[in-house]
Amino acid sequence: MFGLFRKKKAATPADPLGAFDQVIESFERQGAALRRSAATLLALRGQLARDKERYEARGRDIDARVLKAADAGDAKAEKTLRNDRLEAQRMLEQTEAALSKVQVDGALLVEAAEGVGKKLAELKEERQSARARLSADVLVTDALKQQVEHFDRVLRLDEARDEVERAHALAELYREENKERG
User: Which of 20, 56, 116, 127 is the S-S candidate for 31 at Cβ 3.0 to 4.6 Å?
Assistant: First the structure.
């Protein structure tokens, strides 16, 4: 159907080192994104830790006020304060749950960033090795080209020598033929 449904091939770089560079660049972007996300979670963890301390302090404050209201015999104030204490406890539990999740997720992101960092270091090392091998291959290829050129020159020289010998042999034949005739 005129190529409409044909899959497009991914553009491949002309040189093998370009492929390494593309993958390395991708891993660097991925690592940067992981580090940014980990930093965001670390900042959130700090905020949640402060919120937890604030809700704990609020709970202690409400507990003290409940005792004062109970001592004073103010049942209505005591009931309201107990409801406030339940709300503070729910907020504390939600904050602790969020803090726990952030710590787990942060640890996973840090671990993933370290993994990407290790893989990136391995790829960079492999690229250096590939670069060295390619350089050596180029040197060997150049040396082989020079050998082939030298061999071609030797062959042309041999052909020229053969041609000169044929010419001498032909001249010798004509000389002998002329001697026999004459």
Answer: 116
Q: How many angstroms separate the CA atoms of 182 and 178, rounded?
A: 6
* Cβ contacts of 19 within 8 Å, gap of 6 or more: 12, 13
**Positive or negative CA dihedral for 49, 52, 58, 64?**
negative
Instruction: Copy the structure tokens of residue 120.
Output: 């990136």
- Whether residue 154 lies inside any domain: the answer is no
Q: Is residue 161 part of a domain?
A: no
Work out the pLDDT band at 149, boundaries 50, 70, 90: confident
> Number of structural domains, the chain?
1
Range of the structural domain that residue 23 is part of: 16-135
Tell whether 163 is covered by a domain: no
The number of beta carbons lying within 10 Å of the beta carbon of residue 53 is 12
